[in-house]
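ping. complex inputs:
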Amino acid sequence: MIPLSWYLALSAVLFTIGAAGVIIKRNAISMFMCIELMLNAVNLTFVAFSSHFNDVTGQLFVFIVMAVAASEAAVGLGIIIAIFRNRESLDVDEASILKL
Amino acid sequence: MLELTSVFLFMLFGGMAVGCALSMIVQRNPLYSAISLVGVFVSLACLYVTLAAPFIAAVQVIVYAGAIMVLVVFVIMLLNVETEVRRPLRLRYLIPVAAGLSFVLIAQVFFMLFFVGPVSSAPSNVGLTASIGAGLFTEYILPFEITSVLILMAIVGAMTLARRAADIPLAARSADSSGAAGSPFTDPINDSRISGSRPGLTEIVGREMAARAIERLESRTGRGQGEET
Amino acid sequence: MNWNSPLVQAGLTMLGINIAFVVVLMIVAYTVLAERRILALIQGRLGPNRVGYGGVLQPFADLLKFILKEEVIPDQATKFFYLLAPIIAITAALMTIIVYPFGPTVNLPFFGPVKLVIAQFDIALLYVLGMTSVGVYGIMLAGWASNSKYSLMGGLRASAQMISYELSLGLSLVGVVLMSGTLDLYSVVELQTNRWEFSPVLNFFLQPLSWNIFLQPLGFIIYLISAIAETNRVPFDLPEAETELVAGFHTEYSALKFALFFMAEYVNMFTVSVLATTLFLGGWNGPGVATFPVLGVFYFLGKIIFFLFLYIWLRGTLPRFRFDQLMNFGWTFLLPAAILNIIVSATVAYFYY
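pong. complex structure:
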């Protein structure tokens, strides 16, 4: 079967791409998506370890991470819509003050 | 032969995941990024299946591809987000830091590739629905309940945000902007000017987010109890 | 030849999937014909009856027409997504059909006992729900990529409607899952075989009493309504309301690309009918299946045809909702009702199972 290390390496690559995206992107929605990618990279590690140690805990954590990501999406997109309505732009550089 | 098949599957879906992820950060149009991210999610779900975690794979598709990204795409289409403009880099001093950190990461990957053992592939029922339900409702009941409280907070938060946004009269906003006819804020058929009480599409987005969260909360409670009994 | 080797099994499954696709597409083609004929009957017309005897070859004539039509791609369309959207729609629609059990275990010559299901796995129901939710992308992308106002409005409406009604659809199924204790559709159907014990004669005639519909009447009604909305059919066909939006998200589509959307709609209609049959009407169960297993396949098909007829009948009878009525109905009636159903089912399941 596939060595565990392959999954870990894949996860590391995905996480790096996500982190790079958060730094490179200026658009709030794109940054949000990069964060989701990072969460997913971590999920992959959890599932790989769960399968490696034959223990369900890792998968339960993934489940909870998904729930957190879902609530993050609900609130985050609400905030993004509110920002867009006030500034007509999603550029995070323009939203540098915490005031609408 | 089976060995080869699993290597092939890993390469296929792993490659797809990395390719889609790269395409996500290279694309300038947010909608292209979003669709690439859906590709990442789906290929990760396939990887979960090869890792004998079918339940997580299904939930990955339902929650990430089916709920979160649909909302994201919906918002992108609704706000009609234009293509990003490339600007000169800020925070230039971070470049050496990034180089250093990526070197550490590459070192870690090499360490993992050479020193970590193989996945034990004993067939198990760890990834099946029943075992996940049992784990979630016995040992990990506290994190589960805390998550439900978190989701409740998200519902309230989304409702609050959406409601404040809905206070601004949509018709007034789009009327004074120049491209009123093409503005995505007004549904020409369901314009609030025609009938006072009809909800606009933006209001529906808010409700949707809240109700998505409700669904997740409810269905989780329901399914879990079914497995426990 | 070793029938149990994984590779042979994989090959057989592939074969089964392809056969299932062909069969479903044939059924879908004739559903379209049946719809046109039955609608004509309801409206006092004749309907297509020229090609073949009574119009039996009409679907093939239509297919030929679609193939021969000119492919028009709008100038300002985003070409990649414009072409991708119908593919996503039809793929997501077709992929769910492999998990449904269409008959009991039968004894085939040379093979021995065979379960009449293509793929049986632990999370079949979740798989169906996941594929249904992926199908929304086809419609959203079609609306966006066509770069037309009608398409965008249709796409936005369709996606808003589909995500809204997906909630009540998913929640209405939780009751059945609670009663069955499994997400595996084959086991769900098997559990509906002999739920109650009567005398042998009564067991024969009262077999339908074992079906989940009698345990989950509210869930069934909620499922039926949200399934109609989920497939964008009348009275919930706002996304393609031809009087307001020309044709909704597929306004700019022509020739085979339109045919793919058209087929996806009918395949979706077929799959929600199959899901209703499997979960609520006992799948292949019915009087006499215990003695003649092959009868199960016909019961299964009969129940599906009943649902398809119901769809067509509704289309001929009901007027269209308004968008706010649709949303209000979904959020303020169907969703609370589904949650109530879950609470009641969970309580009952806790005390009686």
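The mean pLDDT of chain A is 84.
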